[in-house]
Amino acid sequence: MAAGILLGYLFREAVERNFDARLQAVLDGLLANVELDDNSKLTIPSSFADTRFKLPFSGWYWQITALPDKKQELVSGSLLEQRLDLGDITAAPRDKAGVARVYLTDSEGTRLRAIEQRYTLFGSKDQFSFVVAGNFDELRSEISAFENALFVVLALLGAGLLIAVLAQVRYAMGPLRMLQSELTSIRQGSAETLNEQYPSEIQPVAHELNLLVKSNTEVVERARTQVGNLAHALKTPLSVLANEAEANSRGLASKVQEQTQVMRDQVNMYLDRARRAARARSLGTACDPKEVVDAIVRTLLKIHADRNIEAEVICSDKLKFRGERQDLEEMVGNLLDNAFKWTTSKVTVKITRVPDTTGDGRLWLEIAVEDNGPGLPADQRDQALERGQRLDETKPGSGLGLSIVSETATMYNGSVKLGNGQMSGLLITLRLPALKG
Fold first, then answer.
1. CB 363 within 8 A of CB 434
2. From 232, 273, 293, 360, which residue has the greatest number of CB atoms within 10 Å?
3. 430 within 8 A of 331, measured Cβ to Cβ
4. What is the pLDDT of residues 289-311, one digit of tens each?
5. In this structure, is the dihedral angle defined by the CA atoms of residues 251, 256, 262 and 268, taken in order, positive or negative?
6. Looking at residue 94, what DSSP letter applies?
7. Bond from prior residue into 45 cis (ω within 30 degrees of 0)
8. CA-wise closest residue to 283 among 389, 184, 199
9. Which of 180, 419, 190 is nearest to 321 (CA)?
10. What is the dihedral of CA 165, 170, 175, 181, to 10 degrees?
């Protein structure tokens, strides 16, 4: 923008100087051709100057005036009876050569560019004012044409520069987009490490990220090892106490046996929870939920073959569960085991992709397990998700199934919801992170 303004200013200055030079040439011609006749009157050959100075009110004029009383005047034919006003010229500043440059307006309203210079003619004591004026509209048309062309050129140049900058930025951002894509693949489980074939400016970042991923994996493995060691360290003395209690039939022995069993259950629970948490936080793991569901359904159909249960598995999208297969088998296994226990004749499983509601752009899947059993009252649904709760003692089980499903889903930032199904039974919806299959 600044360059355009500067170029426009310089061009206007150059055009004005060129225009003034043309006017000066006419003025010099006047000075060379004007004469005083025998009666001391101004004369000039009729052939002087071009036709523009002869056309009435053409915007091109010259005027010679005796100073100070204007007792003599000689003007171009284009002025007819009109005269140029010398008032503005008299007050105008002059250069070293005594030339004044001003803007005037003729009787037709035409804007004029005029120069004036004063001389004393040979054979006369009077001083004469020589004025030559040209049509400034022609000057402005030249300036406007240049400014329009300059605007187009600068606009094209600016657009070209903008496109070049955008292309350069896009090219420069290419490696970063690739890095982002590879990080997404690692987070979703379709890759384990970054490709370190990057430009020298980004390669160190990729290398450090690979080290971070490796460190994360090592931390998870160490945590698993430490939890396992703790569990095994506690299991041995607990087993000793339990064995001693079994050999003693007194009340104290019974109490010790009871409490050691509680401790063993607690150790197993937290060991299992720690393992699930470690698997849920690990990177680069994924599995096909339909394969897991199909395998569990086949097993349960064999177990309940005498009940003639119909099972249907529906999967509308090719999705993968972003997590450990063992965890998904445990969650789905508990849900399907519950459904097969309570159903009258039919169990359906629907695996669908659901919209993202967290705002982080991640994919989610839902596994909806429904049966046509008696269902579950709304006031008992929250209780059913609590650890160790068995709402019907006639059915086999420990009461840990749905609570394990809820805990594991929470570790994956997922959820479990209980509701009424379309087949009058219980509908359990398991929401888990996913990636495209």
1. yes
2. 293
3. yes
4. 999 999 999 999 999 999 999 99
5. negative
6. B
7. no
8. 184
9. 190
10. 160
Does residue 66 contact residue 119 with C-beta atoms inside 8 Å?
no
Cα dihedral 36, 39, 45, 51 sign:
positive
For the chain, what are the domain ranges? 2-143, 214-281, 289-436
Amino acid at 241: L
**With 0-12 CB in 10 A as exposed, 13-18 as middle and 19+ as buried, what is 218?**
exposed
Tokens for 273, please give them: 């929870």
Sort strands 310-315 and 346-354 into parallel, antiparallel or unpaired: parallel
Neighbours of 44 (CB within 10 A): 17
Residue that the structure tokens 């006369």 belong to: 124
What is the pTM (predicted TM-score) of this model? 0.46
- 432, 411 in Cβ contact below 8 A? no
In CATH, what is the architecture of 289-436? 2-Layer Sandwich (3.30)
Whole-angstrom distance between the N-terminal and C-terminal Cα of the chain?
53
Between CA 388 and CA 411 the distance in angstroms is: 19
Residue type, 24: Q
Instruction: Record the tokens describing residue 140, joined without a space.
Output: 């402005």
Please state the length of the chain: 437
Q: Is the pLDDT confidence value at 390 over 50?
A: no
CATH number of 2-143: 3.30.450
Common-topology check for domains 2-143 and 289-436: no
Query: In the structure, what pLDDT confidence band is assigned to residue 137 with cuts at 50, 70 and 90?
Result: confident
15 Cα distance to chain centroid: 48
Q: What is the CA radius of gyration of the chain?
A: 50
DSSP one-letter code for 306: G
Q: Token pair for residue 308?
A: 């003639």
